[in-house]
Design a protein that fits this description.
By secondary structure, the chain is mostly helical. It has 2 domains: 102 residues, no CATH class; 102 residues, no CATH class. 81% of the residues lie in helices and 0% in strands. α1 crosses α2, α1 packs antiparallel against α3 and α4 packs antiparallel against α6. The two termini are 21 Å apart.
Length: 206
C-alpha cells in the first residue's frame, strides 16, 4: 500500500517564506493604493498637502489600517478608502487562490473558490440593485423628493448600499427598503452557502 507523502521541512520552509512574501505584497499594494489615491483625492479637491509630502506618502503606506478604521467608525468613508479596501480584498483573494492551487486537488479547489467569489459578487450587485429599486418605490409611495435621478442614483446604490443600509439601521429608519434588503441578504447568504457546501461535497467525492 502506497504511503502518503509527508511534507518535508524544506517544503514547509518554502511555504512559510511564500506566505510571508504574500503578506508583505498585500500590505505594500494596499498601502500604496491608499497613499496614492488619498493624495490624488486631496489634490483634486483642493485640500492642502504638507510640504513634506514625500514623508506623508510613506507614512500613509504604513498607517492606512488606522486611517480607514477611523473613517469607518465615524461613518465618513471616502472614495480612496473604498479603493483601498477593494485593493486589499482583491490581492488577498489572488494569493488565497494561488495557495489553493498548490494543495492536493488544487485546480478543483481553485475552481470551487472562484465559483464562490463569483456568486458573492453577483449577490452583492443584485442586492444593491434591489436596494436601489425598492428605495425609489418607497420614496414614490411616500411622495419624498429624490436627491439623484435613477441614472445616477442606481449605480451609486449598487456600489454603496452596505453603508446606506448601515446608516438606516443605526438610526432605526427601517422601512420597506431596509427590510427587503436585509431579507435579501439573508436569503443570498443561505443560497451561496448551500451551493458552496454542495460544491465541496462534489470535490470531496471526486
Amino acid at each position: 500500500m502506497e504511503q502518503p507523502e509527508i511534507p518535508s521541512s524544506k517544503n514547509n520552509k518554502a511555504f512559510v517564506l511564500d506566505l510571508i512574501k504574500a503578506i508583505v505584497v498585500v500590505l505594500l499594494v494596499t498601502g500604496l493604493t491608499y497613499s496614492v489615491s488619498s493624495h490624488l483625492y486631496f489634490l483634486a479637491t483642493g485640500k492642502s498637502i504638507s510640504s513634506w509630502w514625500f514623508l506623508s506618502v510613506l507614512a500613509s503606506i504604513v498607517s492606512w489600517p488606522w486611517s480607514i478604521r477611523g473613517n469607518i467608525v465615524n461613518s465618513s468613508l471616502q472614495i480612496y478608502d473604498v479603493l483601498t479596501i477593494f485593493a486589499f480584498v482583491v490581492t488577498c483573494l489572488f494569493f488565497i487562490n494561488k495557495f489553493l492551487k498548490r494543495t492536493d486537488k488544487g485546480e478543483q479547489k481553485s475552481l470551487v473558490f472562484m465559483q464562490l467569489i463569483r456568486r458573492l459578487i453577483i449577490s452583492y450587485f443584485t442586492i444593491g440593485l434591489l436596494f436601489s429599486i425598492t428605495g425609489y418605490i418607497e420614496r414614490a409611495i411616500e411622495n419624498k423628493p429624490e436627491v439623484f435621478s435613477p441614472l445616477v442614483g442606481i449605480p451609486l446604490d449598487i456600489i454603496w448600499w452596505p453603508w446606506s443600509l448601515r446608516g438606516y439601521t443605526i438610526h432605526n429608519n427601517i422601512g420597506f427598503q431596509v427590510f427587503t434588503t436585509w431579507f435579501s441578504c439573508a436569503l443570498a447568504l443561505v443560497i451561496v452557502l448551500f451551493r458552496c457546501i454542495k460544491d465541496c461535497r462534489k470535490l470531496h467525492n471526486s
